[in-house]
Amino acid sequence: MIVTTCTVDSISPLTPHVQRVRLVPEQPVHFLPGQYLQLCLTDEDKRPFSVASVPGQAHLELHIGASASDEYSSQALNHLQQQQQSDQPVRIEAGLGHAHLRTERDHPIVLLAGGTGFSYIYSIAQALQQQGNNRPVFLYWGVRQQASLYLLPELQQWASSQSKFRFIPVVQEADDDWQGRTGLVHEAVLEDFVSLEAYDIYIAGPFPMVGVARDAFLKQGAHREQMFADAFAYI
Ligand SMILES: Cc1cc2nc3c(=O)[nH]c(=O)nc-3n(C[C@H](O)[C@H](O)[C@H](O)COP(=O)(O)OP(=O)(O)OC[C@H]3O[C@@H](n4cnc5c(N)ncnc54)[C@H](O)[C@@H]3O)c2cc1C
């Protein structure tokens, strides 16, 4: 674990409900794709957020859900905004979690994101691109509304330019003009794979989603030791 202070470089909306935060750490921060950091609001109050960027970049990127009803995120965001406005740094603990990308394997990969769980999945997907990955990758991103798919064009572009990368957005409460998949995102995975036995599966999203996905995937042949999610420690 690395403890350091960071400048809050920028806070900008990805959607009305999700903010992109860029932090510039005072010292280089070593972490693995898919790890999270804790934002220290006080010495006792620390909130985990997945790092959306990949190691080696000058900044650390976070995607923070920002609805007023979600105190977990809105208090963290308020802290970041206050520190930025008063030119004060924030304190983080980085390089946390065990659900990081495993690079030493050759299994095909399922990446499963629910809502802002996409931050974790995005870091892993970018790292696979950088490494010239040759493994088939199936990225599922489930959201309630279509407008929450804030990086849709980029992911569609990846999918159209790489034969081994598939992107499957899944909208729960779809508008009439939505042409893609609908329903719960883990159910789309269950529909698409007769067996999940061969796959490494990385999961992030709301805890209830991670729980039902884990149980359903196990029933569909997935191996527990090939499923990775830091939420497993909480549920
Ligand atoms: C280690 C760690 C890292 C975290 N990192 C972040 C972060 O980077 N950013 C952040 O904002 N928060 C983070 N959190 C907090 C928490 O995980 C998020 O608040 C949560 O993922 C937010 O989900 P959402 O509201 O965007 O998804 P929602 O909008 O609630 O759901 C998105 C999709 O998930 C599926 N889903 C939701 N509920 C269910 C269900 N009950 N059953 C089946 N499927 C369901 C559906 O497909 C739905 O469309 C983190 C927490 C931990 C422990």
Automatic annotation (TrEMBL):
Tell me the organism. Answer: Alkalimonas collagenimarina
> Which protein, by its recorded name, is this?
NAD(P)H-flavin reductase
Pfam entry (one): NAD_binding_1
- PROSITE patterns, per the entry: FAD_FR (PS51384)
Q: Which InterPro entries match?
A: FAD-bd_FR_type, FNR_nucleotide-bd, MRET, OxRdtase_FAD/NAD-bd, Riboflavin_synthase-like_b-brl
* Highest taxon listed in the record's lineage: Bacteria
Q: Read off the lineage from the record.
A: Bacteria, Pseudomonadati, Pseudomonadota, Gammaproteobacteria, Alkalimonas
Q: Does the keyword Isomerase apply?
A: no
Q: What is its EC number?
A: 1.5.1.41
Q: Which GO terms describe its molecular function?
A: riboflavin reductase [NAD(P)H] activity
Arranged from A to Z, the UniProt key words for this protein are: Luminescence, Oxidoreductase
Q: Which family does it belong to?
A: Belongs to the Fre/LuxG FAD/NAD(P) flavoprotein oxidoreductase family.
Q: Which residues form the FAD-binding FR-type domain?
A: 1-102
- Gene3D superfamilies attached to this UniProt entry: Nucleotide-binding domain of ferredoxin-NADP reductase (FNR) module (3.40.50.80), Translation factors (2.40.30.10)
- CDD domains according to UniProt: flavin_oxioreductase
